[in-house]
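[09:14] KT: can someone run the structure on this one? pasting the chain below
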Amino acid sequence: MQLYSLQLIFNFESLRFSLILLHVKLLRAILISGLIFGIYGSALADEVDLERIVVTNKRASGGLDEAAENIAIVEEGEIAELPANDLGEVLSYVPGIDVAPTKGFGRASSLSIQGSDSRQVRVMIDGIPLNTQSSGQVNPSEFPIENIAKIEVIKGPGSSVWGSGLGGVINIITKETGKTFIPKGRVISSYSGFDTKRESAELSGKFSGLGYYLFSSYMDSGGKGSKSDVLEKKAFSKLSYDLKAGGKLTALFGYSSADVNSGEFPGGSWQAQPYRDLYGKLGWENTFGPADFKIDLKHFRKGVVTKDYSTVSDEAPYSRVDSKDYLYQVSLNSSLRPRKVDLLVAGMDFDNDTVKSSPYLSTAKNLKIYAPYINYSLKLKPWDINFGLRYDNNSEFGSATSPALGAVYHFENLPGTLVRAGVSRAFNAPPLLWKFNYNPGLSIAPNPDIKAERAWVYEAGLESRAIPRLWLKFSLYRSDVRDAISSAQNDDNLTYMKNFQRFCRQGLELDSRFEICDGLYFRVSAAFNDIKDTDTDQIVRGGGKARQSFNTAIEYKSKFGLAVSLIGYYNRWNEPADFQPNDRKMLCDLKITQEWKMVSLFFNVHNLNNSRYWADSYFPVPQRYFEGGLSVNW
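[09:31] RB: done, structure tokens below
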């Protein structure tokens, strides 16, 4: 189902209540953890390392501690330790990211960062944009996680580097090709509740200078109740070839398809939504003197059919929508290091987007974008100064200039302690469909005058490891959005999307990690989002955003290969009363893994405390179910 942002107005309870609730939930999580692990507790992922490399914020490699943005990194090893089966589940454990709950396996969800709409979050795989011109959104369940090397998340705008992306940027970086003649691989097989079977396999190696990585997966779920079955098939391949003095060639191709049924809604209706995604990239990179140069040819194609049925016995749908999106992009990028410590990056993106949608469009619609960008990072100890600038010319929504200025100050006498601050100009172009979609029979009207949303965004943060075994991160943000888009009614009572609101989004995020002893970590995080309509001074509800969210995690990893992870998360969703939310409770997931040299066994318990939970009564989270599996590595 295409997820359009809901923007309704409501009142909320005071911050005092929120803080009290935080204390209660954290106490309960600690008590649950203690009961399960006794004196052993558990451990989180590897110790936080501010020296890790990040590429998404500059489109070139740089240190995480040099970044003025609020960035989160989830690496391959951390993903393996999570009781997660798709990208949405992985991201739901990241503080500051809201993933709207669904009925479960393979079904569409939406992403929000710092209270943004889901279409304002730019999602990419290896730099390939995935946001469509049909809805502007990305369904995270459509893409595999077993082939991920790491996920980089910019919590805040990325317009000065990537263009349209007012809320944040998520870049999924896939695994590299193999380096050895003898292939390495892994096979995973699991079975879980609701008659759900998952299989995946990957293989990597190198032959005569050609490196390769191959992956495929399969998931078949009967689901809970009638018309809730899901069948997924995914594949991915990457090839690389070293041309010696001629540089390096890289090619990748991905495929995802699924037959997804929603399950029976209250009242007996249901929905089928089969989809197919194809994405790929052909890239060449080389070094010319002090400069690195890259050119990438990118492609993304998405087809989805939405069929609505009145009852489970119906053989024909009463409504059908066929949508197809095509993206072709050429990206040029060059970087060099003046003074050997600074970083200068410049480049250009050329986009050609096409959308087809029946019955909303009579003909295909197309837009073109060209966008030069430049950013410079200046290192003047103890300061890192970052400047970025991008100019987007959109054939349908006009031009936008996106400057950004940020700074990082390192405290020389406090180990691992720094402060960040930044200000940026951001924008978000609406989906092309909203400009032209027209179907009076479905009460839909176009808006040829719709334009991009724009915002000034201010951010500040503190990170520290000054106290032994403790890592702390505190962040603040404020985003003043004008020309915000919401639905409206015209004189003919048709619904259309319109720029007519001014929003102020502001909030804070706290993340901490404590090493209790070797192999034993405890983490607690909290995020608050205050989203207000500036014109009416009313709080905004709806759209898959959490007013408050709290996460706790405790994991234990022994030197004998045993790993235990217990994660608790609480989201108070900003949904209106007619959604009948039942969300003010902590959900807990458990994962136990035992690894040997080539074989590992894992056991997951999802919704450990068996809560009846939903943000929207149409989409309840599955109650407690179990999953067990086997992984063979060579």
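[09:33] KT: thanks! The chain has five helices and 34 strands.
[09:34] RB: yep, looked fine to me
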